[in-house]
Write a structure and sequence with these properties.
The chain is α+β, with helices and mostly antiparallel strands. The protein is 22% helix and 35% strand. The protein is built from 1 helix and 4 strands; from the N terminus they run E-E-E-E-H. Strands 1-2-3-4 form a 4-stranded antiparallel beta sheet. A hairpin with a 2-residue loop joins strand 2 and strand 3. The longest helix has 16 residues.
Length: 74
């Protein structure tokens, strides 16, 4: 996990509720700090993405959702 002193005071962030494979409640934390996006998983692993990597992730998620049958949405 990133040390508190590594995240600028003006960083923007949010918490995304989600669930694990067994249906347990979990949260993903997203923080935009400087020129990087830090996604923290429920087990405390930080994934650091550049703006280009964030855009690629967005595009990949969009493509996956377009390939899913709307009847599969929960």
């Amino acid at each position: 996990m990133l040390a508190t002193d590594e995240i600028p005071a003006n960083a923007a962030g949010c918490v995304l509720p989600c669930s694990d494979e067994q249906g347990g409640d979990r949260e993903l934390t997203l923080v935009f700090a400087g020129r990087r996006m830090v996604l923290t998983t429920p087990d405390g692993i930080d994934v650091v993405l550049t703006p280009l990597q964030v855009e690629r992730l967005r595009a990949a998620l969009r493509d996956l959702l377009l390939d899913v049958d709307p009847g599969d949405y929960v």
